[in-house]
């Protein structure tokens, strides 16, 4: 996709309609209960498997569909429109496996990517620590070489899909050098990845988030991702390519809230006529839709840059802008949609309050929006 073209082609538009119907029929029915019970919906994951969406984001040679990132973002958006937690199911294994796709050995790709594509395995991304979230280079989890293996000790926090995933990409310190002393590894959960705690959260309650602990976790050197000391570069390279899809998730949440609010407004009557006929409320919705469309365009542009191989070297900035803008839009739009429903919007009987809670995390994970400002400023000022 060129930098001038951000619209979907005819095939993608048709695919969007298929995914929208799939999401409404197979995912939406489980969304409220998953949120209410803070429970991972295996029904939703099995639906993703049956629709072969677990394979969509991966290279064809390993059992994937090889879809461009623009198409992946479109799917993330349509899933988030009805259930943000299921959208995260779709996205998280890709985040966990991006380092393997882009930096892993051929043997590592051949061994693990087909398992992800089939849905047999899921993956998580182990980067953040209690004192090294935004400041990644301050991580203390460390790995020491022992023969043909590495022994990892430490912990990671805010790990999406903790306890569900059976594969974990783990970043650990292998020397004292702040940036060139970090290395990436792919570990199987059965080797000794312990989940110490699952968080109780405001939103995305259908997606577990937890604390991982490693006590002498032994990982063979063949499961090292990239070169020793290349981990920080791998981590930043990965986030640049995943942030646009968080923007897509935010767009989907916001669009879902608008769509529900509009249908409600057509039915809800005050003073003898539907509130959809009140100009002040129409303008609120018009502004919300304009903001969502602007966010969607920014997301597609950033995804297009990934698909084109970042030809102008501006992906970091484009991805940060898309994630920041889309997530702020999602927070404002969902809050306004709660307002449009009045008192009903404040109840769990309707999904807009869930969408508002789910929207908040998009401003925080994969780099807070304050960090996005730093990324953009660094690009502007060189």
Concise structural overview:
This protein is α+β, with helices and mostly antiparallel strands and 382 residues long. It has helices at 10-37, 42-50, 69-82, 84-103, 106-118, 231-267, 279-307, 315-340, 352-361, 369-381, and strands at residues 123-126, 142-146, 149-160, 167-173, 182-188, 193-198, 209-220, 224-225, 269-270, 273-274.
Descriptive overview:
The chain is α+β, with helices and mostly antiparallel strands. It has helices at 10-37, 42-50, 69-82, 84-103, 106-118, 231-267, 279-307, 315-340, 352-361, 369-381; strands at 123-126, 142-146, 149-160, 167-173, 182-188, 193-198, 209-220, 224-225, 269-270, 273-274. A four-stranded mixed beta sheet has the order 1-4-5-8. A hairpin with a 2-residue loop joins β9 and β10 (273-274). α6 (231-267) packs antiparallel against α7 (279-307) and α6 runs antiparallel to α9 (352-361). The longest helix has 37 residues, at 231-267. The chain is globular. The mean pLDDT is 96.
